[in-house]
Amino acid sequence: MSTSDSSSLIRYVLSRVVQSIPLIFGVIVFNFILIRLAPGGPAYALAGSERALTAHFVERINREFGLDRPLYEQLFLYIANILRGEFGISYYFREPVLPIILERVPATVLLMGAQFAISIVVGIALALFISSRTRLRSTIDKAGTVLSLAAYSTPTFWLGFILILFFSIQMKLLPSSGITTAGADLAGIAWAIDVLRHMILPSLTLGLTGIAVYFGLARASLREALSQDYITTARAKGLDERSILTRHALRNSLLPVISVAGMNLGLLISGAVLVETVFAWPGVGKLLFDSFLARDLPMILGIFIVVSIAVIIANLLTDIVYAAIDPRIRDR
Amino acid sequence: MALLVLSPILLAQNSSVLAQDDPRYGGTLIMGITQGWEPSTLNPNITWGAGPADKIFNGLLKFDVDLNPIPDLAESWTISEDGKTYTFRLVQNATFHDGTPVTSTDVKFSIEEIAKPYNPVASISWQVLDSVETPDDYTVVIKLKEPSSSLLYMLALGTPGLAVMPKHLYEGTDILSNPYNQKPVGSGPFKFVSWQKGNQIVMERNENYFKEGLPYLDRIIVRIMADGTTVALALENGEIDYASIALPISAAKRLQETENIDIVFGGREGLGVIFMLIMNHDNAFLSSPKVRQALAHAIDKDMIHELVYLDTQKVSQSSISSAVNWAFNSDVYKYDHDPESASQLLDEAGYQVQADGKRFSLTVHNYAGIPDRLKLLDIMREQLRDIGIDLTIITKEGAALRADVYGNRNFDLFLVFWWTGPDPVVHLSQLLHSREFGKQLDEYSNNIINYRNDRVDKILDDASSEVNREARAQLLYELQEILAQDLPFIPLFEPADASGYSTEFVGLVKGPFIQTESMEQVWRIRGSASDTQTVITANAFENDDNSLLSAIVILVAVIGIAGGIGAYSLRKRNPS
Predict the structure, then answer these.
(1) What is the pLDDT of residues B200-226, one digit of tens each?
(2) d(C-alpha A204, C-alpha B174), whole Å
(3) Do A40 and B398 touch (CB under 8 A)?
């Protein structure tokens, strides 16, 4: 890469970073107001028991969290704190928000990373497999399309319950919820295996939808690539079908898959609210769900901000990769 | 001077604890709770229900199975004749888990600085507090502005009432955000080890517990699980040993047939809980006693009990729970299922059937996500339709629903669990006393139905300052008769939650205070070798560096496996 190339790349990256700052602010302001529109303040969630719900309690909580002040003042204070790097104190846990969110990130990254990898690899492999069966193409292809559509439209929480019913209850093969076996005191390899066992069902649940997405994408673009002239040329040259598929068709058809994967990469942090809740997986998605029920505004906003930043960074990375590959993009 | 002196009974034997063999030491007990029961804090004095904290803290007193106060940190106590001065002698060998002795100043601090200002439930009882004095390290004198019948009960409630907390860790800090709320230091039988939110809470044996020889278990793990069904399955699979008031009724019925599992229905009798339908008296229809009585006659409790609760609960007979046996009046008027009387009462009240076959409409507010509750309301709607009342069910998620009912008081009917024990006076006062009820709620009042009855107010006031239990029982008998006629709320059931136990453990309290059990007397029949090993708390997710590394290693492994599968599926293909 020449000097002018890399300097234009840097300029491009910088402009993208600058662009994303107002975006994050927009996310904060929009969500701040959106959450306030939800009926029922944190006092009503925090009381726990109806017996605790007295005017005294509601007033105390509202005063403590500054909810008795005008909305614009609350928003201004919140943004001022964010600029100082303070994400606020959780209403529910009464601890700083950021460490609690970051504590949940490994579990979520683990689960989402696994489903991400499974989805992409299996999705593409299936697409390749079906494309390679030229003679059976029409039947298998149709079957594949129908199955992937079915997988894509299956509600994940329902699938989760079905998998729990079958693998945990009927077969008693896999644990039904959580991330580790309670009281097992495992360490090292045994611990990793234990976590892996707990991961299988939730990542399978999530993976099935993901596989369908990447399969559909890869299959469509493979089909298009396979009908191009250069494939006919390759066949005419007498190359075997396998190298035509992997060397010629696959390379060219991966671009749309990469761009979708890039967009999804940012969501690795956000987790999957439904599946994490069904499997009691202690990740960011479940934290978000619980925080909504608890009207834990600083926590919800904190998660939104962390996720927005992750998505923006992931998009930035995808763009940079694109830009590095394709000079036309950064010149636009 | 002294009315009552109790001798120190340190290890008051619980009559429900089966003594089979000599207790064994060691073992881990794994408890399952549902997500909604995970506490927000482990400081029981600032919240409602910090379940696991009951093992970590002690109160001054606790209850035996017959609801009598027995010693905990207080080895004996006296009450002055005027009922305004309570003197407690503390045990002298109790220490907090950091080694500091438990003294009277800790008790004073816990009451005055933590429980009184911040306990959402006990605050109201503490309003009668005048002062707490500490003549010496092991004597606590609680002085009240007026006699209070409920003080001993509240102190004996254990952690929902008063947990004794270390002053030296809380003094001068913001109580609500003190870091020890998340990693509590108490004096109880178990020490806090770790809390991975959303996953588990781990506690280990307190070697220096002041009750000699206790506890027996090495460790208690509280697992936070998705829902009641998951908890039931985990119990069935042996993944957990104990599900405390967490099982769905249908699952509990099924598990009753299972070997090695005991199912108990009940466990909150000590609190005298009544599941009731409260009626907003600001509603023009519901302000008429005849309409309220008609509703009570229209609702077929027995049918709901059979269809929804599979005959596992107890149909409520009065406005005080039958479990509070000294105060319960079984002779009050009972509203049998009688649609004809109900219709007649409505006619008398002046609400005739209109041309469309209806008399009037009501709404009932309902929490989302409780299937049993919706079934119950469906049946209730049918039964009210029979007498010409059109019932609309408004279902909302927790905070939104409460903002309607408690914030704006914009509701007609609402189903609620209300305590009537161990002392009915304080709880019924909170619900029914009319003092200072304006448009907004009185500070500590829960009288959201705007009930006003001078006679009821008077009885509640008298009963509150009456220290003689017989005399109080008389007042409460009369109160229940009035309430059965005037009917500010319709008592439906005395709930009996389902708990499940592994038969491997002995000494789990199956009595009236399951919720606040300290587990100090629980032991495991088969103490296996692995259980008695030193507790290793190595859990990679507790340590940030470690966890991230492990996560990455596992991620790489998964990607590798997936990649391998992909590569294999490609290679297997026949080049054609």
Answers:
(1) 899 999 999 998 888 889 999 998 887
(2) 45
(3) yes
